[in-house]
């Protein structure tokens, strides 16, 4: 396409926005409402996914080493664990370190455990993390069968429930977003269809004088793009403002926990770019689908 022709299409697309003021307002309003809902759902679901990922990463296998194992036996055990596929890390924690952690976890009441410092009943531990947290339930039984392993702990029973809940939550989130996007496409397409229907005579005249289908489509395609982008502006501003306030309140109270929200930056910029893209694509799709029937003369 020549630059001059594209400029003409661009100019016509902009003119259409101002020429059909009320229809433009109706279309932009429909886009704004639907994209605001999409933006809110995306923000919530992406933060839930963030929480779920952090919870999954905290899943670990605690391998209690038999007290009879020598340092050489411990090295061999570590090598055997490393030989298992999908192992991300193996960290050694001595029984002295384990006792300190136990005392610290009980706070003031933990002082009573200080009596065990002279005769520590705890065991040395290997803390194992799988590269894929879901593999934990497969890796743990393999380690349990190895020599010099006294006990293996990974939250058996609870971990499986956690992974099942997280998976269900993600699937529900994807279904909601897909449904919302479909609704947005339907609403925006119908709104744009009304705009184009009011100009059907103009399209038919252009077709009769020999204009090609794409020559007619381009101004409407660009108009749909502009409508989608304009409709995304208000949701972006609202999400910028609201998320900034919510992020400040939540993270000040939940600082240091796994329930921290996604960082303000670059998250809001990613959401903004996504809303602009969705708005533009749906606007163009709505224009193309709406004008199609009027090109069949």
Architecture overview:
- This protein is an alpha+beta fold and 297 residues long.
- The chain has 2 domains: 3-55 and 161-295, no CATH class; 60-153, Alpha-Beta Plaits (2-Layer Sandwich), CATH 3.30.70.3040.
- It contains 9 helices and 4 strands; from the N terminus they run ααβαβαβαβαααα.
- The chain has a 4-stranded antiparallel beta sheet with strand order 2-3-1-4.
Write the layout of secondary structure elements.
Blueprint: H1 3-19, H2 21-57, E1 61-65, H3 71-82, E2 87-93, H4 95-105, E3 125-130, H5 136-144, E4 149-153, H6 158-197, H7 200-208, H8 213-253, H9 264-291
Antiparallel strand pairs: 1-3, 1-4, 2-3
Helix pairs in contact: 1-8, 2-6, 2-8, 2-9, 6-9, 8-9
What gyration radius follows from the Cα positions, in whole Å? 30 Å
Mean pLDDT rating? 79
Order of helices and strands: HHEHEHEHEHHHH
Secondary structure: number of strands: 4
Detail the poorly predicted runs.
none
Largest sheet: 4 strands, antiparallel
Q: Helical segment tally?
A: 9
Structural class: alpha+beta
Shape: elongated
> What share of the residues does DSSP label as strand, in percent?
5-15%
Strand order of the largest sheet: 2-3-1-4
The end-to-end span amounts to 24 Å
Q: How many domains comprise the coordinates?
A: 2
Overall helicity: 55-70%
């Amino acid at each position: 396409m020549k630059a001059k022709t594209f400029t003409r299409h661009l100019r016509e697309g902009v003119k259409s926005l101002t020429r059909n003021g009320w229809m433009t307002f109706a279309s932009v309003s429909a886009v704004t409402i639907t994209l605001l809902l999409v933006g809110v759902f995306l923000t919530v679901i992406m933060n839930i996914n963030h929480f779920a990922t952090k919870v999954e990463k905290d899943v670990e296998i605690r391998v209690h080493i038999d007290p009879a194992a020598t340092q050489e036996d411990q090295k061999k055990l570590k090598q055997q664990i490393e030989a298992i596929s999908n192992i991300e890390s193996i960290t050694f924690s001595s029984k002295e370190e384990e006792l300190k952690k136990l005392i610290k976890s009980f706070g003031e009441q933990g002082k009573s455990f200080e009596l065990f410092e002279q005769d520590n009943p705890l065991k040395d531990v290997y803390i194992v993390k799988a590269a894929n947290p879901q593999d934990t339930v497969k890796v743990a039984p393999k380690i349990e069968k190895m020599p010099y392993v006294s006990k293996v702990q990974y939250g058996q029973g609870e971990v499986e429930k956690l992974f099942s809940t997280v998976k269900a939550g993600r699937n529900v989130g994807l279904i909601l977003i897909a449904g919302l996007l479909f609704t947005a496409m339907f609403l925006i397409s119908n709104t744009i269809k009304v705009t184009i229907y009011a100009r059907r005579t103009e399209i038919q005249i252009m077709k009769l004088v020999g204009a090609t289908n794409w020559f007619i489509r381009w101004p409407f395609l660009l108009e749909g793009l502009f409508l989608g982008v304009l409709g995304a502006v208000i949701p972006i501003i609202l999400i910028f403002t609201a998320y900034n306030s919510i992020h400040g309140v939540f993270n000040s109270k939940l600082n240091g926990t796994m329930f921290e929200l996604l960082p303000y930056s670059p998250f809001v910029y990613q959401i903004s770019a996504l809303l602009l893209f969705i708005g533009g694509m749906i606007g163009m799709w709505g224009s193309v689908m709406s004008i199609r029937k009027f090109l069949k003369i």
